[in-house]
Amino acid sequence: MSNPILSVKSIIKSFPRHHQPAHVVLDQISFTISAGEVVGLIGESGSGKTTLARLIAGLELPDSGSIDWLDTSGNIPHKAQMIFQNPYASLYRGMTIREIIQEPLVIQKTIPKKNLQEQAVRAVIEQVKLPGDKSFLDRYPHQLSGGQRQRVAIARALIAKPRLLIADEPTSMLDVAVQNDILNLLVELNQQHHLSILLITHNLAVAAYACSRIMVLHEGRIVEDDITANIVHSPQHQYTKRLVHAARQNCQLLSLHSAQTKPSVN
Ligand SMILES: Nc1ncnc2c1ncn2[C@@H]1O[C@H](COP(=O)(O)OP(=O)(O)OP(=O)(O)O)[C@@H](O)[C@H]1O
Description:
The protein has helices spanning 49-56, 87-90, 97-108, 114-127, 134-137, 146-159, 176-193, 204-210, 228-233, 238-260, and strands at residues 4-17, 20-34, 38-42, 64-69, 80-83, 164-168, 196-201, 213-218, 221-227. The chain is an alpha/beta fold. The chain is globular and about 55 Å long. A hairpin with a 2-residue loop joins strand 1 and strand 2 (20-34). The protein has 2 domains: 1-23 and 35-79 and 162-249, P-loop containing nucleotide triphosphate hydrolases (Rossmann fold, 3-Layer(aba) Sandwich), CATH 3.40.50.300; 91-161, no CATH class. The termini are far apart. Helix 6 (146-159) runs parallel beside helix 7 (176-193). Strands 5-6-7-3-8-9 form a 6-stranded mixed sheet, with helices on both faces. Strands 2-1-4 form a 3-stranded antiparallel sheet, with helices on one face. It is built from 10 helices and 9 strands. Residues 6-244 form the ABC transporter domain. Pfam families: ABC_tran (PF00005). This is ABC transporter related. Keywords: ATP-binding, Nucleotide-binding, Transport. One of its GO terms (biological process) is transmembrane transport.
């Protein structure tokens, strides 16, 4: 694999429970992510996807195992940045769009000069395809649509120049039409800016669309980790087979429905 940036080795993570043994959420998780990869992490609700993301982002500590950033060139304070599924909750309501996007620079003190901060804001606003005019940047989150808010969240992550963007179910709370736009934006950021992305989803179709490689998390373990074509066309693990089967059935239902509702041509 070319130029790995992140190495996760033998991670175990558990949470304590009242009067019961600790709940082992992640058990012996190991993988690497290379520069410029878009890797999908797929698994059912409660399988530990967000916990794994929080460990990589440094928001939680593992019980054991290691998370290492490789080949670090330069002093990059935040190696991973996360965006969350709910853009309504993840943006602070009392701050303008400009303040929200600038915040990582203010916290990190990487660009102290105000005019350079403004330049950096405009650069990332352009990358996420939002209007860069003053009236937009002076708005508050409640004045934006769900898709625009998610773009702001992505811009705020990008301004910190992360080595890895962790997108935790970034489309699942958005309208169907907007979901595709956000997925396409992530794909574009990867292709044009070589951004490495870990895309967390419970939706195989979403992972297959955007990711070159997919890891399948089931009952705390990565049961399959392969290029997307292999996962989709020749799944090995029983759980992956079920996911693929369900996704195919959904597609068939959709095409059956469109065939039935096709207007007759006279
Ligand atoms: N801070 C915590 N304390 C106790 N248990 C936790 C904590 N965080 C997560 N868990 C438990 O760990 C398990 C995995 O949760 P996690 O949120 O990582 O799953 P997930 O795959 O992201 O689920 P979803 O798709 O529903 O977001 C769940 O059973 C959850 O209740």
